[in-house]
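pinning this so it doesn't scroll away 📌
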Amino acid sequence: MFPRIAGHALIGRDEELTRIAAVLDGVRPGRLTVLALEGPAGSGRTRLLDETARLARAGGRGFTVLAEPEWAGAVGSRQVLRTVGDQPGPLLFLGDHPRRVDPRAWAVLDLLAETTPTLVALTGPAEGARLRAADVHRVQVSPLSPAAQAEFVARLAGGRPDPLLMDLCRVAAGRPGALRELLAGLDEEGLVRLDGGWAVLRVSRLPRRTEAYLRGQVASVSAPARHLLQAAATVGVSFPLVRLARLMGVGPVTMLPALEEALESGLLGGDGELLAFGHDLVRAAVESTLPRPVAAALRPEAPRRSAPRRAPRRNASADWSRLSPREREVAELAGQGLTNQQIAHRTNISPHTVNFHLRQIFQKAGIGSRVELAAQWGRHAHEPYPKSQS
């Protein structure tokens, strides 16, 4: 089993830690201060909350730290007021479940903050608190950068991840918790092996626990957000918002609440002007939560089972919108006539990975050869999304 790395220094969180330290150093008596760590599930908010507590005790700051069960209820907060109100030094209250904080507890904390520097650090918004905007410091816990993801995976796997493994890790959308779940599942099913210091992916597929994790995320969002995700999964890996709005029969503005929740879930993200799933396997996992007849009805361009299979027409147009950003980059270079070796050099991936992407491109775009790819790309280069954003 892969080791836990919670005891190691945080990876790729220098910016967040700098902002957290600044908030700790700026707490003053007179009014309550709140630090809200915001991000999707699995983004590492709880780990950053633990690190906030460590920073509060270190560097001569001398905070007294209280965990959520001790203060979040109305009775507990009054007990805290009696026991810590006379203690010298600043106070830090940790809340990993902001919705469980009793609204009456905020009034007690306000009273405490009048004379004692008091900070409440939460893994989410400060619901129920009547605070001025200036007193709430929001830190967005963003996805890990590609380099930080590679370091994180290397520590978990015990070896440098090969390109195919890193490609599969796009399923996690840069979220440490999701990466840990994915690597644990790969390990359980023997899908990763160590070879000469490299962590090598044996088969590019999702482990069962990751499929269950993704289905659980779909089930955990509200019905409007779930319906949006499911409809999006039938459109493609990446697509413009207006295309999804047209499918759902609503205006883009009407979709905003559900879209924001879908983005917060981490299942759907943004790729420039397009919405995008982090990986086609994520899209497929979301689509699998739909009954098959419904999924088929939402994909009007899908061929019917009874229709005979025909060779692609010479002037048929490939659907480039189904390609991921990396696949569009590979398709562009292959369309220019570059070899796998040349594409690998340009994109800093292995020729084997290039071949894997080309197979995905052929399947999604309905293309049978590199010659056809070059012809299609040249003919339709003016369309909205054949060109990569590199």
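📌 and the second one:
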Amino acid sequence: MRNPHDLAEALRRDDLAEEAGMHANDRVTCWTHQCWAEECASWGHGTPVIAPGSIR
């Protein structure tokens, strides 16, 4: 079962919805979360699953 609070999954859902025509202002994930995902990917760590600074 997928975790509905998984940041990586939420980013993927928003990206797909936006590509399908959803307005960018209707995203669930904020700009900061999108930046974290891009930074982690550029560092070779993949898309974050848990937001930085959160307790695991």
